[in-house]
């Protein structure tokens, strides 16, 4: 099951070196990748909000809508 999860997260087949891992190790890797992606998404959202501080207040709503924040 972890292998299917990993292949979905990686967007393709799992590399041969990963296939050699035990199932619990694959699950740990899958969890680590998922957590890293969540942290990355949160950091990107925070960076976007931080960047809006440089946009005049009256334009922030329009800029948020234009960039999808």
Describe the 3D structure:
It is built from four helices and no strands. The model has no long low-confidence stretch (mean pLDDT 86). The protein has helices spanning 2-10, 16-19, 23-51, 60-67. With 69 residues, it is mostly helical. The protein has a domain at 38-68.
- Tell me the overall shape: elongated
Major sheet attributes: none
Taken as a percent bin, the fraction of beta residues is under 5%
Rounded to the nearest angstrom, the radius of gyration is: 18 Å
Separation of the first and last Cα atoms? 34 Å
What letter string, H or E per element, gives the SSE order? HHHH
Helix content percent band: over 70%
Please report the total strand number as a whole number: 0
How many alpha or pi helices?
4
Q: Can you give the mean pLDDT? A: 86
Contiguous low-pLDDT stretches (5 residues minimum) are none
Briefly note the structural class of the backbone: mainly alpha
Concise account of the structure shown:
The protein has 69 residues and is mostly helical. It has helices spanning 2-10, 16-19, 23-51, 60-67. The longest helix has 29 residues, at 23-51.
